[in-house]
Write a sequence for this structure.
């Protein structure tokens, strides 16, 4: 009897020890696989916000695309279990990741961007994911360990709002994360939560790369004036108080909403807008992380016109110079020789149907215009044009466009007040 009991006890101990050894082996293997996967990625960047509804996923998607436009190898991981937005923002809702039998193959997007989201794994996009913390931790670990990211310059990780299980899990799984970009809007309600987000990063030893203020002013579609709906300057002030870099402001652009709903990365399709330039400026700290990579200066666009030949644009309404730049029906475009004071070519172009903020200035830039003559123009539009080297003559009388240009060439065009400076 004794021997029988001893044998059974030894057998039980053997099973328990084998099970424990198997668990340890699995944990070691997973950790090694995680280290191997992450070891192929130079930089891991977390996109965080302390509050929902600040446009964090939109920022994550556009930062990813902006990095790819700089020639970097980039991946994006959407770890928002309760509202995965990246598939929608990149028009990948119908896509599914592949497999090679051992690893999950992420979805390919434009310019070689690799995309993985929990949204790809849902049978129905309307399904609610109801998981507790340990389950989230397990799935995040699986996504980081089993997804075959390959060699990347940057992996952008988009988180749900707050400082809960998801960011904590990744901070624990990737102790070498390079840093976090924290997204806010200007109002106090958002800024208070973002302060907590910065404190969270400091507690888990994740460097804060900077604060990016989204929805920072609405650009009037008619005159280009910025209306500060959610106050102004709050993000910069908070960043200064918390001792972290301020990465800039992204204005409210209806084009961002339209592009996001259509799954078109805004920073790519509207690259000449002020908002797209703000996204591009925001990635400077990310690009400068790798000291071994020296960025070449952006090429300067050379004007095709010689010094004495320029192109003048006149906004028209009912065939005459339009009183309001933003309300014009068409443009008269004149190629002129300043030295000879003569018109050497002219054409009419219908104004672009897209009258969203900055659309007309950027359309003129694309047409190669060097100068505009207008009656009235908003200060925002003036800034955009002048920053791009286009001279603006304001206060011209409403008259036939050819007559206006000839008066300008003769030096007899009388300019008055700006009637649309709002």
């Amino acid at each position: 009897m004794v021997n029988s009991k001893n044998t059974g006890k030894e057998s039980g101990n053997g099973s328990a020890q084998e099970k424990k050894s198997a668990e340890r082996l699995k944990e070691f293997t997973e950790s090694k696989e995680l280290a191997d996967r992450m070891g192929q990625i130079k930089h891991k960047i977390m996109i965080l916000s302390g509050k929902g509804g600040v446009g964090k996923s939109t920022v994550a998607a556009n930062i990813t695309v902006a990095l790819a436009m700089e020639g970097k190898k980039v991946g994006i991981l959407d770890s928002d279990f309760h509202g995965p937005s990246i598939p929608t923002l990149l028009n990948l809702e119908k896509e599914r990741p592949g497999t090679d039998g051992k690893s999950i193959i992420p979805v390919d997007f434009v310019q070689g961007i690799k995309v993985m989201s929990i949204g790809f794994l849902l049978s129905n996009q309307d399904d609610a994911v109801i998981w507790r913390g340990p389950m989230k931790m397990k799935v995040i670990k699986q996504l980081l360990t089993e997804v075959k990211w390959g060699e990347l310059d940057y992996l952008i990780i988009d988180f749900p709002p707050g400082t809960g299980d998801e960011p904590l899990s990744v901070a624990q799984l990737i102790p070498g994360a390079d840093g976090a970009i924290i997204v806010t809007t200007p109002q106090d309600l958002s800024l208070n939560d973002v302060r907590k987000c910065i404190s969270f990063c400091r507690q888990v030893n994740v460097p804060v790369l900077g604060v990016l203020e989204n929805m920072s002013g609405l650009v009037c579609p008619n005159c280009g004036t910025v209306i500060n709906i959610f106050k102004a300057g709050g993000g910069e002030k908070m960043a200064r108080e918390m001792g972290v870099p301020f990465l800039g402001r992204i204005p409210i652009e209806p084009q961002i909403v339209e592009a996001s709903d259509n799954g078109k990365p805004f920073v790519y399709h509207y690259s000449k807008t002020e908002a797209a330039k703000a996204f591009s400026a925001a990635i400077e700290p990310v690009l400068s992380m790798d000291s071994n990579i020296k960025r070449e200066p952006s090429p300067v666009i050379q004007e095709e016109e010689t010094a004495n030949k320029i192109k003048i644009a006149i906004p028209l309404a009912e065939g005459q110079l339009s009183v309001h730049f933003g309300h014009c029906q068409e443009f008269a475009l004149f190629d002129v020789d300043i030295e000879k004071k003569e018109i050497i070519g002219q054409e009419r172009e219908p104004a672009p149907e897209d009258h969203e903020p900055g659309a007309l200035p950027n359309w003129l830039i694309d047409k190669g215009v060097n100068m505009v003559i207008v009656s009235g123009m908003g200060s925002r539009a003036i800034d955009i044009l002048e920053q791009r080297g286009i001279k603006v003559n304001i206060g011209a009388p409403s008259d036939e466009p050819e007559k206006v240009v000839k008066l300008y060439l003769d030096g007899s065009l009388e300019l008055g007040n700006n009637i649309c400076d709002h």
